[in-house]
Design brief:
Elements lengths: L7 H13 L10 H8 L3 H19 L6
């Protein structure tokens, strides 16, 4: 799937976050828990998720990459 220009790690992070309820209100899972699922730190997971989210949003709004 090349709809969005995501790395494999970014796609994995955003997919896991969505499936685990990270985007729900209230959140069903924390960044720390999600990072633990992948064996990475909370900070590393946060960076992957932020980068993936930015790419999806920019693409959805048909905006050029920064």
């Amino acid at each position: 799937d090349t709809r969005f220009d995501l790395t494999a790690e970014q796609r994995e992070a955003i997919t896991l976050a969505a499936q685990a309820g990270y985007f729900d209100t209230p959140r069903e899972v924390t960044l720390s828990e999600l990072g633990g699922e992948l064996g990475i730190s909370e900070q590393a997971f946060s960076q992957r998720l932020r980068a993936a989210t930015e790419e999806v949003v920019l693409s959805a709004l048909n905006m050029p990459d920064r």
